[in-house]
Specification:
The structure is a homotetramer.
Chain A lengths: L2 E9 L4 H11 L4 E9 L4 E9 L7 H14 L3 E6 L4 E7 L4 H11 L5 E2 L3 E3 L5 H6 L4 E3 L7 H14 L4 E4 L8 H6 L4 E5 L11 H8 L3 E8 L9 E8 L6 H24 L3 E4 L2 E4 L2
Parallel strand pairs in A: 5-6, 5-7, 5-9, 7-8, 9-10
Antiparallel strand pairs in A: 1-3, 1-4, 2-3, 10-11, 11-12, 13-14
Helix pairs in contact in A: 3-8
Chain lengths: 283, 283, 283, 283
């Protein structure tokens, strides 16, 4: 079922819901899902609607024009998207296959509602798996002393492919600041720890050293500061003294791929709103 | 913060949200929380609002009169309650103390928003604990051959105490059908299994016999059919071959009290809607 | 690291551990993992050791001969296997790809310690995915009225491939009793419910109808009675009124594949012992 | 059933289990539970046995003498305790009642196998609750500028009461280093975050600020460095943007009390072994 997804953030006040729902009712909009949230601390209001596209007399552009006065009145930050305009997700990976294989399978079986124009990797290991899915594979090695050229190439591909979102499926390289900025809130990373614990390198080693009883993974938007961007989704799994670091790596993989796929799904469905370095997820 | 809780169920259609939110906006109602759900299978629509009481020009009665035309127009089943009119919850227990102690502590520390006019038990074991909390304790023995008299007494007490809800905190006796009917969707039970598995007696023994790897507990509204009423909340805990039935009983207690207290909390805050023997929980 | 896995079940008594560990110590056996369990209800004792193969002066046959007197003395049911003699797991699937893809990826990335001589399916849908992994794919249609022929063919393939274990990765057909018996405790199924709830067909529909708050999956050995065999592993995921049956199916897939892969892993590593239709899992 | 609990840590090697189990078998010791662990990283071996006391010809002292040669031979760090010599646990609390009430109820209902000679608090709020349980309550105010006197008084009470273990049930004060040292691995704290995230003050505020999707609690042995001691047990609960800091505090309470009671139970049953600032928990 084709829907329009209307996502709104604005200073809280009386009458916002009434105005928006009146607008939708006036045009006979059939709301299939609605979520609201008033953040009492910041005084902001957040809202997400899914509306059957065939119930409205507009296309997206028409909606935007008709709704603009309301948006202005309440100083809204807002967007409306069409569920049938599939986002273009460029996946980036390194050598580890678990997250990439998981995303590709979900996409292939119709569970992930996006196009995957290509996969970019700094290694060649996963080419055959990607190409079996009919997806182009770009091998862009990232060599010490030649990182600038590598990321210039990455940027070129990402733009050429009209990426809407970049997914770092255990890419293991730090993207340059310009790219993060250009794709603000559109670069999704999976970090293999329960942040803010164990940011940076070798989180499972850190976890083993500290003797934690649960390990986790964190899906977050990438910002300039490493592993410090807004968290979209997290989960954990129990470990014990019986689990070596290798066991943790293995157990963690399952958490990583679950968390990344959930986070990406929320993003693709416009369920994630970012406010003051935190997310609201309307799921 | 004092709120009014407006809970609505009606056949789905265009314009319901607009009508309700317009109504609220017209009277300057400050919505602190809003939840909607369209059930595509049944074609019903469900809605819950919390509105700051001091933002509205009504008391409950005034609200009811003003809102009645909208309710009629959309054939709504609805209710509105005042967060400051605390529900009166009569607790019933047998000999096991864990659920009762948990509820009493939550109430005593201000976490459970209700009054507890009394506790009724078929045993005298828990009297001192209850009375320490300043709550009257009624000992109503349920003896074979004299069950009718016992439950007549229970009914008398429940009515005399103006109970809004009856909580079976491991009461271990089956309430008579008339009482269940009189308090339809207002008798809350905790069953010590993950229903529909292991209904009836000795669920941990059943679980042990079947060799399940997780055991659970279920909070549900009581209906005439044993352990078959609408489920409000459930949870589970992992067990293994190392856990004897006694271990399961012990581990299960923690799940039981968590699940019961969550379920009761949802009920007290008018977060639970019942539809075709299932619940929606707006939490 | 190559290990021998010694698994023992016998009536409990004094001196068993001493006898076994003396035996191992006499031959300088380096124990890397040891698990014991006394079942107080049945009076049985269970034990599993992993011993570095290079620390022992035996091959498997030599071990068996040397250990036989002890096994006789304590009326042991026992087995010893070599971690380097990889089990041959024949996978069977229908049209749903999630469990099969998950197992294949784990195998391909070295996480599942077995050989996969072939995949058998009653449909042709998953052939290309399987063959990309370099694994033969047998399409054995199961048509009404011709089931006997189909399963004769399945049996033939399974024997020809010297299968040690058969994994029903959402195969959706009931295996004939003879095959189950021949492969007793060696046919592993994933059922898409938290058994014993919702055995049989369309468990997610049953779960939705009953309004449970968690759905699950169960990995079990197949016995003649449908969905009633010894449970190896289970897990659950939370659902709510917002989740349609389609959502449950999607959420359930993740639980199914996690539970099946964990169950299979336990089986391959000789961690599962069956006793009176229940399992002990030494993990 | 009265048991002896034999806990051993020593450098790993061949023949340890054989020697120990031979020793037990020689004296007809009936092992009811046995756990072993070889830590491949450190090269240490850990072992815990429960043995029916009535199956052995010793009392504790006799056991110690008979076992000493084996302990010397393998350079064991070891202890043996009697399940009927209940540990004396001094509980310390501040104003928050949830952890204390939970422990007291578990103790009162026979679930916690210890004596509670007294409760010490820097406030008087919880006196009545404690005294209802028949337990003495010491009010030792901790005033700025007079901390030394306060903790001298605490130390005096703890010694006078022959405490075996001190449980900080949300005590909210930092114990002096001498006391921590005197009771090394015998002071158990519950910290209201998933350590190492959010050590120190106001962890729920920190968690809210960072926007994590799960909050947790950590039970650990107290060492000189704040919130950095060996972790005994941890758990988490899911939160979302809908949860205010107050909601997190409420949800966190349930995790805190579960985690603390599990950790304390493991300690009381001699299930916890500390090695290089981490724990092994044989549960």
């Amino acid at each position: 079922m084709r829907t329009f997804r209307l996502v709104i953030a604005c200073p809280d006040g009386v009458g916002i819901v009434a105005k928006v729902s009146n607008f939708l009712a006036t045009y006979n909009g059939w709301i299939t899902e609605a979520n609201h949230h008033s953040d009492h601390q910041s005084g902001w209001f957040f809202m997400r609607h899914e509306i059957r596209a065939d119930s409205l007399p507009f296309d997206l552009e028409g909606f935007r024009q008709a709704f603009a006065p309301i948006a202005r009145e309440f100083s809204m930050e807002w967007r409306i998207t069409d569920s049938e305009q599939r986002k273009r997700a460029v996946l980036m990976a390194s050598r580890e296959s678990h997250c990439l294989a998981d995303l590709l399978h979900r996409w292939h079986s119709g569970e992930l509602d996006c196009d995957i124009p290509c996969v970019i990797s700094n290694h060649n290991d996963l080419r055959s798996m990607v190409e079996w899915h009919g997806i182009p594979y770009f091998h862009v090695p990232v060599e010490p002393g030649r990182k600038d050229q590598a990321f210039a190439e990455v940027s070129r591909i990402v733009r050429e492919q009209h990426a809407d979102v970049i997914v770092l499926a255990r890419y293991m390289q730090i993207l340059p600041a310009e790219l993060c900025e250009e794709f603000a809130q559109r670069v999704i990373n999976i970090h293999h720890s329960f942040l803010p614990s164990f940011a940076g390198a070798k989180p499972y080693h850190q976890a083993s050293l500290r003797g934690v009883k649960l390990i986790g993974a964190t899906c977050h938007y990438v910002t300039e500061e490493l592993d410090a961007g807004p968290i979209i989704e997290q989960d954990v799994v129990r470990v014990s003294h019986r689990d070596s670091i290798e066991d943790m790596v293995r157990l963690g993989k399952d958490v990583e791929k679950m968390v990344l796929s959930r986070g990406l799904r929320y993003h693709l469905q416009e369920r994630v709103l970012v406010h003051s370095n935190k997310t609201l997820v309307f799921n």
